[in-house]
Design brief:
The complex is a heterodimer of chains A (515) and B (325). By secondary structure, chain A is an all-alpha fold. Chain A has 20 helices and no strands. Chain A folds into two domains: 247 residues, MetI-like fold (Orthogonal Bundle); 257 residues, MetI-like fold (Orthogonal Bundle), CATH 1.10.3720.10. In chain A, helix 3 packs across helix 20, helix 5 crosses helix 8 and helix 16 runs antiparallel to helix 17. Chain A is globular, with a radius of gyration of 23 Å. The two termini of chain A are 27 Å apart. With 325 residues, chain B is an alpha/beta fold. Chain B is built from 14 helices and eleven strands. Chain B folds into two domains: 175 residues, Periplasmic binding protein-like II (D-Maltodextrin-Binding Protein, domain 2); 143 residues, D-Maltodextrin-Binding Protein, domain 2, CATH 3.40.190.10. Chain B is globular and about 55 Å long. The chains are: A mainly alpha (515), B alpha/beta (325). Chains A and B meet through helix 4, helix 8, helix 9, helix 13 and helix 15 of A and helix 1, helix 3, strand 7, helix 8 and helix 9 of B.
């Protein structure tokens, strides 16, 4: 098990190394470091950092009251639906996001008249709104999860000591949230740092350029591999070290299960209840409005003439790709965590940190560089027109592994803390241990499977490089429509993609709760 | 789940692309269900009694990049979908061979005489507006840049229309281009990664003008019956994008490849391409929906492919510095 875990880790690292090797080998040499003294790249780097920090900060700040409302008011209507909706933000196609936000807040936007004459969506405004939309729901889930870890006894003690609201916030809520918030910040920061199409579209001009744009340009239009390598290394360095620092400072129980046991939660007073309800309603509005704003456009599609059957196969392909990638990723993540758990049990803090970082490195390695590097390496070895779909599955699997690791890890560590000694004392065999572990792990396992499944189904970047038109996926179909004037059809297909993902999330929640 | 899986692997194993008589690298949207690819394939296979296979990559640039990566071991007999801006870079790979065709059927306005690349469609970059909103559109690039009309265009670092505008501004303004970009930046709504983001934002009413093609209005008329989207003719002239096909040096069947190129510029193929790729035919006298006759017919300005290849990075830098102000 231990050995399989190391093998799994090595495998995922090997793919990244091979990808870089592919680029270095083809580019006849390493990175071009003179680039870093170029003023343009410095400004691009600064802007990337600025927008990513602001986006992460805002997402977290706004998610906080929402998470509190959900925590203090478990009886809010359609609360579970809201939490499912939060997962969908992960697969939100750029098309939905851009079209929806423009329909709401653009020049002729539904809400623009309320914002006054000076309002302009395009610029840092637009970037932040889009990133908050994508990441706030995710932050809400993590924070809520974290709050739910507050033991009943803390609240009872707080009540006995007659702590004020401010004291409860400072002494109970904040210490619980703090470690999660740090890692969460890192996560959202990295996701925003790597963002690109949305940043350009809503950024208002070339001032809003992220490092990812520069990588795209270098790899695609200039085919300048030394330049791409420099950019990729600097991105890996910045995002990677930030992530390492933050995971050192904090641990996160990331998007694991909501515990369903009745908890002893202090009852907020009437005005507070009202505020919670309003925050909750605002949350619904925020998440639903951009999706609803697509509807008028969709209605322009001639439903009778629309080729519904054209959607069937791409949907099926997306599902199969998603299931294979997510299944593989869960297995890999579980295996990768074995040596991490061992290191924790032996109290080897540094080793644990290193192994954890390696298991989540795919998050910070620039995805475009990894896929293009592999493409360059493989194109000359393998018939990619025939086997490309295998690599779509493989790369998607590796891309979602960090999400699975982040979610399974706290649960497994908690299990070890509680049962490891007992298992050892009872001299249980490996199979017996797995049987004990499963009920403990099951909810977290199912929830994270659903999450990475929708993530893999939403993939576009990897398919763009390795996929072929015989195996068109639903997201790719959406962009094919959009790229050939069929924007209404693209909106319709986007809604169907979201619906499909909603169904998946909902079904898995059902399975999880029916235990 | 298991049945899905076995279906998947079964299909995977039966898809083979190497057996064809003629293999063509092109961009994905060319061979999408509604693109010209499937119809051209059927029409050509009827004539040649052969099997032709298209391999799609993401876009035009990716065709070139794939050739660069594969070198001599590429599978293509033909490439289809490189534009004139990338022609010289494609030629310098040394992977293209002369087509040996007489190109006298081509429209004179293309002024085409290259011995390796054959045009199969083209379009003029143009700013599209909604005639219900704007009754008096601007009549020159200069007027547009000096106006305060809102504009959306594509990023020249990531898209070909963006590069088209870059050449257009350079052709009209020369040394004053930086200044023009700065003025344009004052009323630019946004600059997008690709064509569709810009165009869909425009359709949502986000700007007065969007950069697209002179043939865009034809789509709205033919496919949607809407005639209010129009291209603004500019007095300085327009920059063209010419889409090209060529035979690879490594082709195992250059004779058949040549026949395909000939077919591509025939009246039969030229009738299919404009109404599926929404570009203009490269020969005269093609029977098309009437709206194609009503499209603007601009004067062509711009640079030779060699000049573009030579100076693109310099122009990009100029745009970047000026427009980011």
């Amino acid at each position: 098990m231990q050995r399989a875990g190391i093998a799994a880790l090595l495998f995922s690292v090997l793919v990244t190394v091979l990808a870089f090797q592919g680029l270095i080998g083809f580019g006849h040499g390493g990175a071009d470091w003179s680039l870093l003294s170029d003023r343009y790249y410095q400004s691009v780097l600064l802007f990337s950092l600025k927008q990513a920090s602001l986006s992460a900060l805002l997402s977290l700040l706004l998610a906080w009251p929402l998470a509190r409302a959900l925590y203090y008011r478990p009886q809010l209507p359609a609360r579970r639906g809201f939490l499912s909706l939060c997962v969908l933000a992960f697969v939100m196609p750029t098309l939905v996001l851009i079209t929806g936000l423009v329909a709401l807040l653009g020049r002729n936007g539904l809400l623009s008249p309320l914002l006054g004459e000076q309002w302009n969506l395009y610029g840092l405004n637009g970037i932040l709104i889009a990133h908050v939309y994508l990441n706030l729901p995710f932050a809400v889930r993590v924070m809520l999860q974290q709050l739910q870890h507050i033991p009943d006894s803390s609240w009872q003690l707080a009540a006995q000591l007659k702590l004020s609201r401010w004291q409860r916030l400072r002494l109970i809520e904040w210490p619980t949230l703090k470690p999660a918030v740090l890692v969460l910040f890192g996560f959202v920061f990295v996701l925003c740092f790597n963002s690109f199409a949305v940043v350009l579209a809503l950024g208002g001009g070339p001032r809003a350029t992220t490092l990812e744009v520069a990588i795209y340009q270098a790899l695609k239009y200039d085919f300048n591999i030394p330049e791409a390598l420099t950019l990729a290394w600097s991105q890996l360095l910045i995002a990677g070290s930030l992530f390492l620092l933050l995971s050192r400072w904090g641990r996160s129980h990331w998007l694991s299960v909501d515990t369903l046991q009745r908890q002893w939660i202090p009852q907020p007073n009437q005005p507070m209840k009202l505020i919670h309800a309003m925050v909750y309603a605002a949350g619904w509005l925020l998440l639903l409005l951009p999706i609803v704003a697509l509807l008028p456009g969709v209605l322009e599609v001639d439903m009778a003439r629309f080729g519904w059957s054209a959607l069937l196969r791409p949907t099926l392909v997306s599902l199969v790709v998603g299931l294979l990638a997510a299944g593989g990723a869960m297995l890999l993540a579980y295996l990768m965590l074995t040596p991490v758990r061992q290191a924790h049990l032996k109290r080897q803090r540094k080793r644990a940190l290193l192994l954890e970082w390696l298991s989540t490195h795919a998050l910070v390695a620039p995805a475009m560089v990894v896929s293009v590097g592999l493409y360059i390496l493989l194109l000359r070895q393998i018939d990619l027109d025939r086997w490309g779909m295998l690599f779509v599955v493989l790369l998607n699997m590796l891309m979602v592994v960090p999400f699975a690791v982040q979610q399974l890890r706290p649960r497994l560590l908690q299990y070890d803390a509680q049962y490891h000694r007992l298992c050892r004392a009872l001299k249980l065999s490996g199979r017996q241990r797995l049987r004990l572990e499963w009920p403990f792990l099951r909810p977290a396992f199912i929830a994270s499977f659903a999450l990475i499944l929708v993530l893999a189904i939403g993939d576009l970047a990897i398919f763009a490089i390795f996929g072929n038109e015989q195996w068109t996926t639903l997201p790719w179909l959406i962009y094919s429509y959009a790229g050939s004037y069929r924007i209404a059809e693209a909106s319709l297909a986007s809604l169907l993609l979201l619906l499909l993902c909603a169904l998946i999330v909902w079904a898995f929640e059902r399975i999880r709760l029916d235990a | 789940m298991r049945s899905l899986l076995s279906l998947f692997t079964a299909l995977l194993l039966t898809t083979s692309v190497s057996a064809a008589d003629l293999t063509v690298y092109t961009y994905d949207s060319f061979i999408s269900e509604w693109g010209p690819g499937p119809k051209l394939e059927a029409a050509f296979e009827r004539q040649c009694d052969c099997d032709i296979t298209f391999i799609g990559v993401e876009d035009g640039v990716s065709i070139l990049n794939r050739l660069r990566i594969e070198g001599d071991s590429n599978k293509a007999d033909l490439i289809l979908g490189i534009d004139d801006g990338l022609m010289e870079e494609t030629r310098t790979t040394g992977l293209i061979q002369p087509h040996g065709l007489k190109l006298d059927r081509l429209k004179p306005e293309l002024a085409w005489s290259d011995d390796s690349f054959v045009p199969f469609d083209y379009g003029y970059f143009a700013f599209i507006y909604d005639s219900r909103q704007i009754s008096k559109p601007v009549d020159s690039l200069q007027a547009l840049i000096d106006s305060d009309a809102t504009v959306i265009y594509q990023d020249p670092r990531t898209s070909t229309p963006g590069q088209g505008l870059m050449m257009w501004v350079k052709a009209v303004y020369g040394d004053q281009a930086a200044d023009a970009w700065q003025r344009l930046a004052g009323h630019t709504v946004t600059v997008t990664k690709g064509w569709w983001e810009a165009y869909s934002m425009f359709l949502q009413g986000s700007a007065d003008y969007v950069l697209s093609y002179s043939s865009s209005p034809a789509y709205h008329v033919v496919a949607e019956g809407k005639s209010h989207y129009k291209a603004a003719p500019f007095s300085e002239g327009h920059v063209a994008q010419i889409e090209l096909a060529a035979i690879t040096r490594t082709s195992g069947n250059p004779e058949l490849a040549r026949r395909f190129l000939e077919f591509l510029t025939s009246a039969e193929a030229q009738r299919l391409i404009p109404v599926s790729n929404w570009m203009l035919p490269v020969i005269d006298g093609v029977e098309l929906p009437p709206v194609f006759g009503e499209l603007i017919q601009p004067k062509r300005i711009g640079f030779s492919p060699a000049e573009v290849a030579d100076r693109r990075s310099q122009w990009l830098r100029e745009w970047r510095n000026a427009a980011a102000q």
